[in-house]
Amino acid sequence: MPTPFEVLTLGMNILGGLQSKSASNAAARRAQEAANFNASLIERDIDLLEKQRGIINANFLVQQERARYAFERDVQATARSGFAYAGFDISVDTPMEILRDNAREFDYEQSVARFNNMVTNMQITDEQENARLNAELARMEGASQASGLRAAGTKSLISSLGQTAQMGYEMDIFS
Fold first, then answer.
1. Which of 16, 47, 42 has its CA nearest to residue 142?
2. Which helix (H) or strand (E) element contains residue 22?
3. CA torsion 4→6→11→16, rounded to 10°?
4. What is the pLDDT of residue 171?
5. pLDDT reported for residue 92
6. What whole-number percentage of the chain has pLDDT above 90?
7. How many helices (H) and strands (E) does the chain have?
């Protein structure tokens, strides 16, 4: 017959295993919550990048419009008025070639600006995808850490139950 101390020791051993399992489960929950919080911070960057894209594109459109207006006002109008003032017929020959060359150069500059804007948008898209993948990775790392903590708690509980059973057999409680 086991003594009260032996029974108490067995009970404390089981209780210790249960408490360890409970603590591990709580730590696992906190690890997953921390990972989810970190992922939400990373995902916030995706929204900020989208806002940045909107600002860049709006600025691009304004710059395009201003450039068209400035080109017509400052370049083409100046060339036309200069030739007309000098007495040249601006609808033929050199004046017209200069106006066409100016227009081709302007079109080229606008094409370069569109290309640069497109590259900027592609970079933002890449950054958003990178942020999305980092958020997913943070959640996966949290799940992995949580799983490890739960497994450690289960191992501790099984170990304490095994030790308790061994002690019980040694004390001849189960006969």
1. 42
2. helix 4-70
3. 140
4. 82
5. 72
6. 55
7. 3, 0
Closest CA to 155 of 12, 17, 23, 10: 17
CA 151 vs. chain centroid, Å, equals 30
What share of residues in the chain are helix, strand, coil (percent, to 5)?
90, 0, 10
Binning pLDDT at 50, 70 and 90, where does residue 170 land?
confident
Q: Give the Cα separation of 65 and 147 in Å (integer).
A: 57
Q: Give the C-alpha separation, 105 to 138, whole Å.
A: 49
- pTM given for the model: 0.68
Q: State residue 81's pLDDT score.
A: 85
User: What is the token pair recorded at 30?
Assistant: 């906190």
Non-local CB neighbours of 131 within 8 Å, separated by 6+ positions = 42, 43, 45, 46, 49
> In the numeric block, which tokens belong to residue 131?
């942020």
What pLDDT, on a 0 to 100 scale, did the predictor assign at position 175?
67
Cα 124 from Cα 96, distance rounded (Å)? 42
If 0-12 CB within 10 Å is exposed, 13-18 middle and 19+ buried, where does residue 117 land?
middle
The domain ranges of the chain are 4-170
Mean pLDDT, the chain, rounded, equals 89
